[in-house]
Structure formats: C-alpha cells, structure tokens
Write a structure and sequence with these properties.
Distance between the termini: 95 Å
Order of helices and strands: EHEHHHHEHHHHHEHHHHHHHH
Shape: elongated
Oligomer: single chain
Strand content: 5-15%
Strand order of the largest sheet: 1-4-2-3
Radius of gyration: 26 Å
Helix content: 55-70%
Largest sheet: 4 strands, parallel
Structural class: mainly alpha
Number of helices: 18
Number of strands: 4
C-alpha cells in the first residue's frame, strides 16, 4: 500500500485551525495522528500535569535565565489566546481527541522543550546573552506591544525565535531548522509502522518539514545528535576566572610588599564595589532585606570563586524566606500581568537570583578594573623600589 502523509499547518490560537484539524482527520481517517508536542508538553496540555521544578535545583544548575524566558514567553502566548478566545494548543488537543475517536494512534514528534531552550542558549554569544537579558528586563518592567497577527501563526517556541531573531539570527535559524529536521525524521520513522499519517504542526514549520523530508530521503540524519546538550565554552566564566586570578594575584603581591595599608584599602574597595552592585541587583528584583544583605556580604567572595555565584546565595536566602511551592509555580501561568508575576514567590526568587548575578558580574568587571588600575600601580612601584634597594 502506498504511504501517505498529510501535513496540516495550523495557527496555535485560532478557532478555524481547530475546525480544520478535526475535519481533515475525520475525512482522511489516518492510522496515526502526529502532533507538534513533546511528552512534557503533551502531559501539560492533555492532563494538566505541571512538572514540579525545585527552585533549589534551578538555582544550583544555573538555569534561572532559561526558566525566566520560558515563563515570560508562555505568558505572551496565553494573553493572545485569551484575546481570541482560544486556549494555546487547542488545535493539538483537538487532533489528539479526534485521533482517539477514530481509533488512530497519537505520535509525539517534537523535541523536548528543555533541550530546545538549552541548545538555543548554547548558540548565543556573550554579547547576545546580554542583549537577550536586556530584552527580557525591558519586557518585564516596561512592557511591549504584542504583534498579534504574527503570534497567531506561532507557538511559544516560535515566538521565542521570532522575538530574538534580531539578537541572534544564527541561533534562531539553527533552532527552527533543527526542530523541522527532528519532526521530519520522526515522521519518516512512523512509516515503518503506519501507512497513512496526518501531521498537525504550526504553520511556520510546514514548509521546513517538507524540505527536511526531501533532505532526509537523500541523506539520513541521526536525530539523537539533535538531542545532545553539550557543555559549551562559557566565555563569561573565563573572563570572571581571569579577573579573579588577577585580583588574587594583586592581593598576594600587596601582602608580599608588606604594605598593610594598601592591602586593607584594596580589599575595602573590592568588597564595597562588588557588594553594592550585587545588592542593587537584588533590590531591583524587590528582594527581602535579608536577601539584599546576603548579596552584599557574599559578592566579594563569590566573585573570586568561579564555583559559586552571589545570586545563588541571595536566591537561596530569598527561597528560605518566601518558601515558594509547586502551587506558586502553577499560578504563574495564570498571571494576568507582569505585576502578578513579580508578586509570585517562585518568580520573585528567580528574579532575585538573576539580577543579583547581573549586579555581581558588573561588580566583578568594574571592581577588577578599579583595583588593578589603582592599586596595581602602587604594588609594582613598591616591589620595584625593594628590588632596586
């Protein structure tokens, strides 16, 4: 029997797409219905299962910014869905329910959302990450107009790519192409078991999947390579380690020069510059006074230790004080405004962690420059005089 694939491109918050999906599946009566979902998103959409995300693990693994991006982008799409009276993913849910009514299997062909966000992050340079952070902060505190017409054709991942395409065209292109290739490969694999498949995907993916299908017929691709999350080079960490090394070297030289007065002055400036900027970041996130104090007191040390960040300390204190729960995380998707999100305990801990780290990073760079340019000269002069004698 000849194999047949019908790809349906949908708008993710459109009633018309829901009707179209149901009609095509009813008329075609395929053996299987493939949907643009991964297991995690399927459980959330169909069963309302929201995976518990321990705040301590998010902070410890350094995934704060990634989670913030996902939460803000999910908020954008939900607001558009409310405006048009359609829940985001309604057409996927309709496809799943229709498949069940005709006895067709349901295939989840998209890549795990966590892998996609991690690979996106890896494709950003340091400058692009800084731009991305600024974009996020502007969205959080200033607010931006949402282009509804464009968002009608996209899901939350596509929105992410569109929003940040001007920041990193290469990273955005890689992620779109990767997902198209990943879904195309899963569709081809499906034909080892099924003769007719209806695939329901976002309109922005339809052409890409069709191109990928042609490519895969000529040159098969191992999709497991598209699931790898490699630990890339962290330029920011290299810079921080280099600055910390120079600062520690400067302190050692000061100590060797037996100039106690200069050593105390250098330490005080290092302590204050790092502490004030880290605390300012925490305060901007409306942290508890104890969390701000923790940021202030720990920043000088964490800036010298690449294994720990000031945001981890202030975030841990904030989590200890506010005690965010799974319910807080669940309520984030129901937030009506950014003010609601900022009043959410889970979200507040994330923001405290993130902005403390930003302040600490600035403090490390500026503090390092100040110490080296101010006290490094004095140390070199003293050592030079001693060697001359």
């Amino acid at each position: 029997m000849e194999k047949k694939l019908i790809i349906v491109g949908t708008a993710h918050v459109s009633k018309k797409s829901v009707e179209e999906v149901e009609s095509i599946i009813e008329n075609e009566r395929p053996d299987a219905v493939a949907v643009e979902l991964c297991p995690r998103r399927y459980r959330a959409l169909v069963h309302g299962v929201k995976e518990e995300i321990p705040i301590a693990d998010v902070i410890r693994k350094g995934n704060v910014f990634l989670l913030l991006f996902q939460l803000v982008l999910s908020y954008f799409q939900r607001k558009v869905g409310e405006e048009y009276g359609v829940k985001p993913g309604a057409e996927m849910l309709a496809a799943i329910e229709k498949a069940g009514s005709i006895g067709a299997d349901v295939l989840l062909i998209d890549r795990d959302i966590g892998i996609t966000f991690n690979r996106f992050w890896q494709n950003l340079t340091l400058i692009e990450k800084i731009k991305l952070l600024w974009h996020l902060l502007k969205s959080m505190f200033v607010g931006e107009d949402i282009d509804v017409d464009e968002m009608l054709e996209e899901d939350v991942l596509d929105v992410m790519v569109r929003e940040f395409r001007n920041i990193s065209p290469s990273a955005a292109k890689v992620l779109i192409d990767e997902r198209d290739m990943y879904m195309a490969a899963n569709l081809l694999n499906a034909f080892s078991k099924y003769d007719k498949v209806v695939a329901v995907v976002g309109a922005g993916h339809k052409k890409g999947i069709e191109r990928a299908l042609q490519t895969l017929k000529e040159k098969p691709v191992n999709i497991r390579e598209l699931e790898e999350v490699k630990k890339g080079r962290n330029l920011l960490k290299y810079i921080s380690v280099s600055i910390a090394g120079l600062i520690m070297g400067t302190f050692v030289l000061i100590a060797l020069s037996l100039n106690t007065e200069v050593l105390v002055k250098a330490f005080i400036f290092w302590f204050l510059i790092n502490g004030i900027l880290a605390a300012a970041g925490a305060a901007l996130a409306r942290a508890h006074p104890l969390s701000i104090a923790a940021a202030f007191l720990s920043a000088w040390l964490t800036s010298l230790n690449p294994l720990i960040a000031a945001g981890w300390v202030s975030g841990a204190v904030e989590a200890w004080i506010r005690k965010p729960t799974t319910e807080d995380f669940s309520k984030l998707v129901e937030a009506e405004s950014f003010r609601d999100m900022m009043n959410n305990r889970f979200f507040r801990v994330l923001m405290v962690t993130a902005l403390t780290n930003v302040g600490s990073m600035i403090g490390t760079i500026y503090g390092g420059w100040y110490i080296l340019s101010t006290f490094g000269i004095d140390v070199a002069k003293v050592i030079g005089e001693r060697l001359w004698i």
